[in-house]
């Protein structure tokens, strides 16, 4: 649906980097030179040909941990985004098309959830629940679904009042045709771009939780947790904590570049050829 | 087109070989430059009014704004001279241009409601330019503004300036904007479609007020409009433009009585479709009986006790201004807004009030065409899908059978089979409306509801659509419920007419009877407000109206 | 003139209070009704049934949930936030000084970031599509993708470790001289500023741009007003409300950002207090601090809405 010949430079860089991160995550065990928990050298050894990024606070190879960390971070973020997206988009579309008390009820509840800052709410919940992968994905996915709900509902409400949808209703079409054939194709562009933004948010959110010690628990490694493990080195001038932090930033910026491009390319509702 | 060169001491504005370009950014393509106005020259003498007329995209607003050296958005004046009061304003620099704007040339926009700053009182905005350019001090300027308010027949001229824009109606706001333009006593005012957004009965008052103000103050004007009949009322000369080029330029009488160019004659005769009224011989197949409908849970009554009949193969036109309830009538008939009281009988049986309770066949028999064709079609579907869906849905057609029928329908709307794979965005305004007509026809309906289907279109295109609709009626025997605010359209297409006012049908019957005196007060007002392509019509209409109100 | 406005504001405040009440229910429910037993999580898996029962009794966990909720709410309303499980300290006392520290930090970050964001936003609008605009927009896009700790540790690495200008750990104590205190919060305040600046600037730019594209700006231009006059007389009065809105929303943003920043710089504020006690599963503290954060957040949103109401001429001067 996108014209790949006219990618601007920024978006191309974003696409390539995103792809690289994904490949790293998928083939982590094949790429990583050392094992995840393997202690291979001194504590905080500097970068060398043996340890390309040096070693961490326990003497484990930082590069290997970065590669495995990519896997954990991206996996949880993808799952949480998938959950928030399917939940938010389906409920949002339904609310817009069905309307009435269902819409009012769900929208008020979402308002309520959004009245508490997400991080604070997550901390409150995590004070009771154990920090397992499943909990993290559920908490992040459900809290983030509120944003997706708002967006999909707003987009669908806008489209739902357009004359072509009214024409379909007058024809006698059912809700299925209206949601999937009339509304969805026109709502796709803003939603795809939002998908990218939600993914970035999930990465940043997970990293923040792990950094605070409430996300992924050792011995598993994710980038946010690695920042936490190595943060004490900073005061000794050891930049090991900055590397996973920079990786998070690089992943987020890459996806942002792609999402921004998708949004700019396809915001118009005119549709038609070569445009979606 | 030859113009006798006026005495140069009278010459106010002299535009020579104007060229205006704009940079456009089509999505996914490299930005490119398009030419909006090409080699247009005009002269305007002091105190004279030149009408600029053309369809959308003719470049008339762009030319008008060029007299203030202003280009909207990415629009740039790239060539030619604009000589105002003897000097080329393009050479005056930013300071020079700023000094002439609001002082020598003022502007009246189409939508005064948007053109006034919502945060300031009207008076502060009206006198702003006068004070800025040192034409008058505040006290003088306010005095002058009040006098102008009075001249423009605004209610409560002493105090209306203390109001905020949102506290004043659209027609009044348009007059306040005219007062704002006149306040700094400019040499030239650019009127950019000042009455287009108004209802027809309001338009005539504003038009008369503008004309009087121009006459009394001796200001020159460029009057921009797409409606030749309106322009003819206020202009001394008319310039016809198309695609940014000059078509014809001459005195008002010559343009409307003896047009020399084919395009101009088409514009002049646009409203003249001969349509013989059909005899009301058959019995109605759709009867609306005593319908009452309301929005907001019964609080706002929009239809009050409305009854109309529609005869097979004939056209009922429902006329009224905004807020008359004419579109609501369509929503009630289609079931989108179930009426509170009354009933609709269709083919001898009572039609369910709610859309959801109607049978698929009932839905098929009633089709609808909308005002805005571009939002009435799903932008992600091709013409083939759009027209083909009713065929699948109602008749279960598929494959070759459906494709053949789609092609047949495309022929009927005079577009041809090549359009099957096009998306709506790739069609012109008129073509879009034609596809909507084909979609309605595909269902083989008994009745098509046409909701202002021509009002968003340029006059010539609208004319084509009306002719097509009439032709299809003769061929297919379909009936139309034609909703419009435009009486000229009604005359061209209707067999019977219902005049609506504030939710009620105030006059109803066969066309010949409805349009024959004696009229009721509202129909009289409505009919006398429709501009006619006739010099002096405005004065006649206004004086007729004054006599009527004196007689009452 | 003012009665419909007062009514609207009263409605908005009432709605805010109602929302806060609902939030308190949600926070309470989030910690009490979710699967996972508080007593169990405090004592761990190896706790004896007797110890569990004793703790449940002590925490009042045996009463029905709604009774416990109203008991808690009544306490909150009278200023009694309960006792911390881990330290047996009175929560209200512990929070007092920390709340002040957090507000001090947020205040200085806001003082720097708000004018900076508005000035940069104006510059971007003034030179729209020029290199200034593009640079600012590009940096804004990048910095919305940066995690707070990246910014934070980068500052520590250079300013505290390499160049040793500011302390990397922000120790503050009662009676600390003002200048020393300012030196201590220099880095966390800078980090917070950077975290909210880009977002605030982008939104300011959009808000002002929206106003600048209105038809009445064209009217002013066609009256011959200078660009400065147009902005001062015609754009500014209409841009105040959206800009205040942007500022308030971003202050709400800042309140959340404070949590991570405080942990990075080991700053004794509310955020660190919250994180510490989440790790200790100290539910009363988490509830109290969570409620305070939510109250500040809701309060800022109410102020944003009230600003929009007050600045709307349609509401100030009804028909």
From TrEMBL, chain A:
Keywords: Cell membrane, Membrane, Transmembrane, Transmembrane helix, Transport. InterPro entries: BP-dependent_transpt_permease, MetI-like, MetI-like_sf. Residues 70-259 form the ABC transmembrane type-1 domain. The keyword Transmembrane applies. It is a multi-pass membrane protein. GO terms for cellular component: plasma membrane. It is found in: Cell membrane. It comes from the Bacteria. One of its GO terms (biological process) is transmembrane transport. PANTHER family: OLIGOPEPTIDE TRANSPORT SYSTEM PERMEASE PROTEIN APPC, PEPTIDE ABC TRANSPORTER PERMEASE PROTEIN. Belongs to the binding-protein-dependent transport system permease family. This is ABC transporter permease. The lineage of its organism: Bacteria, Pseudomonadati, Pseudomonadota, Alphaproteobacteria, Hyphomicrobiales.
UniProtKB/TrEMBL annotation, chain B:
Transmembrane segments: none annotated. SUPFAM superfamilies: P-loop containing nucleoside triphosphate hydrolases. It is found in: Cell inner membrane. Gene3D superfamilies: P-loop containing nucleotide triphosphate hydrolases. CDD domains: ABC_NikE_OppD_transporters. Keywords: ATP-binding, Nucleotide-binding, Transport. GO terms for molecular function: ATP binding. InterPro entries: AAA+_ATPase (IPR003593), ABC_transp_ATP-bind (IPR050319), ABC_transporter-like_ATP-bd (IPR003439), ABC_transporter-like_CS (IPR017871), Oligopep_ABC_C (IPR013563), P-loop_NTPase (IPR027417). It is a peripheral membrane protein. It holds the Pfam family oligo_HPY. Its main location: membrane. The keyword Zinc does not apply. Residues 18-268, 286-527 form the ABC transporter domain. Belongs to the ABC transporter superfamily. NCBIfam families: PRK10419.1. PANTHER family: TRANSPORT ATP-BINDING PROTEIN (PTHR43776). This is ABC transporter ATP-binding protein.
TrEMBL record, chain C:
Residues 99-304 form the ABC transmembrane type-1 domain. Keywords: Cell membrane, Membrane, Transmembrane, Transmembrane helix, Transport. The chain crosses the membrane at residues 105-127, 139-161, 181-200, 239-265, 285-311. Its main location: membrane. GO terms for biological process: transmembrane transport. It is found in: Cell membrane. The keyword Lipid biosynthesis does not apply. GO terms for cellular component: plasma membrane. It is a multi-pass membrane protein. It holds the Pfam family BPD_transp_1_N. Coiled coil: none annotated. Belongs to the binding-protein-dependent transport system permease family. This is ABC transporter permease.
